[in-house]
Each structure stands twice: as structure tokens, then as C-alpha cells.
Amino acid sequence: MQVMMTGPDSNRYAKCIEVSKRIRWEIDRDVIRGRTFDFSRKFLPDRLSMLPALTFLSEREARFLSQIQGRTYANMFALVERYIGAKVAELGHAHALGDQVAFEALVRVADEELKHQELFRRLERMAGDQMPAGYVFKPEPNEVAAAVLSKSTWAVMALTLDIEIFTQVHYRASIEPDTQLSDLWKDVFLFHWKEESQHAILDELEWRAEHARLSEAEREQGVRDLIDLVAAVDGIVRMQASADASYFIATAGRSFSAAEKTAIGDVVLRAYRSQYIVSGAQEPRFGAVLAELTTPAQMERIGAALGPIVASTGPHMH
Ligand SMILES: [Fe+2]
Ligand SMILES: [Fe+2]
User: Fold this and answer.
1) Nearest Cα to Cα of residue 313 among 56, 44, 53
2) Distance 168 CA to ligand 1 centre (A)
3) Which residues contact 119 (CB under 8 A, 6 or more apart)?
4) Is the pTM of this model over 0.90?
5) CB contact set of 52 (below 8 Å; sequence gap of 6+)
6) How much of the chain exceeds pLDDT 90, in percent?
7) How far is the CA of 121 from the centre of ligand 1 (A)?
């Protein structure tokens, strides 16, 4: 019985539980605190939104487009958290009659992701109350979750580690240092980042554990599935970039030339590909684990699948 209570990585799981308890926050008491969004300020920082590339926009227009991108940014997290919560609950169940520390750590992640989804739904309602009608968030969380969860655990955990690492990179490198952002929007991603730090550690433990259980053929299937998932994420990103560019053009309050409309669509797509695909894939911490869990030939295939997406976002990525 004693042996069943803990596993080889119990200390690392235990550390995540300890930090998770220490930094635990509540939506109203700690994050929203009775505030609404300040629409005189940007939401998404320039480094992520790429809006300085659209030199023909006025300051007010660029700010509005950063708010649209920031609204989608919150919705994208709510979207992926649907599948992440479900996957983590499934992985937790595999520990349920074994390592109780790992079980507790994963139950906490599932609980936190449910809270994050509630927070992001609240923000979407608040944004909807104050922004012009017509915004549409296209992807449907349960449909996307069903498609992602149909893939192998190896691939799902690779995608999840990628997402949970870029969440932190965006906050530390771009959101935190920007003093021009809406205080509420910025705080949301400060509090989100605090809990996501533990999630990324647990993703890596679970991905490695799954990798160790698989045959070479199953790992090969994992790589194929990961390439499929990257293509699926790109499909979602293209759909939403197009919706957000159209919403901006329809509600900005003036007309744009055909060339300007094309430029708006291109920059929003580049920004979204960079935010949701390239920034995570190029993050050294993710790349190191991926390189360890793949053969050079598999790594090359993943690189080839990412190649056109990376190239389309230009050379100055973060
Ligand atoms: Fe989250
Ligand atoms: Fe998370």
C-alpha cells in the first residue's frame, strides 16, 4: 500500500500543489475587484498584436484593434481550456488509485482551468457590453475539444505544454513590461500566468510519462497527430483572424481602401499565427523537451510542417 501512495516524481507534483495553494486566487475578490475595462487603453501589447505595422491606422483605431485582439486572446484561452481540463481530468484519473500526490496536483489543474474558463466568459460578457455589436468568436469549445481529444495523448500533451509555456512567455516578455495596457486586462493575465506556471511543469511530467509508456510506432503516431493538431490550430487561427479583421473594418467608423483591408487581414493573421503557434514552437524550453522526445527525422517533419507558418509571420518573432 505504501508504495502505491507516491511515485518517482512525487516531489515535483508536491511542489506544484504547494505553489498552487499559496498563489490561489478568486475571480471577483482578486482579479476583477469591481472593475470594468478601460477602453481608453490598449488590451494586447504591440509586441503581440503587430499593429505598428499598420501605419495608416490612427492611434484610436490601433487601440480598438488591440482591444479586439485582446478579446479574442481571452476567448482563445477559454477555448483550449475546455480540452485541457478534460485531458487533465483523464490523466488524473490514471493516478487515482496510485500516486495520490500526482492525483491531487492534476485535480487542482482541472479545477483551475474551470475557474479560468469562468473568468474568460465573464470578460467576454464585459467586453460585449462595451464594444460595438458584431464581434463573433467562431470556434466552438466542445467541437474543438472533441477533435483534439481524438488524437493520441502524446500529441495532446505536446500541444498543451506548448500552449501553457507560451502563456507565460507572452506575459513575462510582452504583457508585464507594457505600461499602456488596461489595468484589468493586464491583471487577468498576471493571475492567469501565476497558475499556468504549475500547469506547464505538470504537462511536461505527464508528457514524459506517456512517452515512456509508448512503443516506437505509437510515438510515430504521436508525431503524426501533433502535425495534424498544428494544422487544426492554424485553421482556427485563420478563421478567427478573418472574423476579427472583418469586425474591425465594419465597426471602425470609416472606410478603408481595398489595399488597406488586405493589409489589416494580413497583419491580424500574422499576429495570431505568431501568438498561438510560432511563439510557443520557438520557445527554447518547449523545443528542448520536444527534441528529447523525438528522433531527428521526426523533429525535421515537425519543423517542415511549421515552416510555412513561421515564414508567414516574418523574422521578428517573440
Ligand atoms: Fe488557464
Ligand atoms: Fe493551464
Assistant:
1) 53
2) 11
3) 27, 31, 188, 192
4) yes
5) 46, 62
6) 95
7) 12
